[in-house]
Amino acid sequence: MRHIHAQSMRTDGGATLSGAFTETGSTEVTLDSTVAASQTDSLIACAFDKDTLQSVFIVADRDCSLQTNSAGSPPTTIALKSGIALQWSASAAYHANPFAAADVTAFYLTTGAGGSTRLQARILNT
C-alpha cells in the first residue's frame, strides 16, 4: 500500500516548482466524517500506532480543533485550517511526527459556527 505525495506551488508570474515522493506501508486508516456546526469534542473513531506511522494527510473544509485520545487531557491538539492539509511523512521528516506524544485511540473534533465540518484523512502505517 502506498501514499504518493505530490506538491507544487506557482508564483503570480506563472513560475512553478513541484516535487513528489512515495511512502509505503501495510495498513491505512481512511476517514471521511462530517460533524455539525458548533460541536465540542465530537468523537471520531480512529486508531493508529505512532511508532510505525509512515504518512499522514488530514484536511478539513472549515477551521476546527482536532484532539487525540481524550477530550479532557489530549496528548495532541492540532488547529486545522480550512482547506490546508496537515501533511507529514516519515521519509521527508522536515518536522517531527505530529502524533509522537502517544498512540492514537480516537479523534475529538471541535467545530465552529456557520456550518458543518468535513474531516478527511489518510493515515499509513507499516
Helical content band:
under 10%
Q: What is the CATH topology? A: Jelly Rolls
CATH architecture: Sandwich
Q: Tally the structural domains.
A: 1
Short précis:
This protein has no helices and 10 strands.
Folded structure, characterized:
The structure is a single chain. This protein has strands at 2-10, 16-24, 27-35, 42-44, 53-60, 64-68, 77-80, 86-89, 107-111, 117-125. By secondary structure, the protein is mostly beta strands. The strands form 3 sheets. It has a 4-stranded antiparallel β-sheet, with no helix packed on it. Strands 4-9-6-7 form a 4-stranded antiparallel β-sheet, with no helix packed on it. Strands 1-2 form a two-stranded antiparallel sheet. The mean pLDDT is 97.
Keywords:
mainly beta; 10 strands; four-stranded antiparallel sheet; 126 residues
Strand-helix topology:
Layout (H helix, E strand, L loop, with lengths): L1 E9 L5 E9 L2 E9 L6 E3 L8 E8 L3 E5 L8 E4 L5 E4 L17 E5 L5 E9 L1
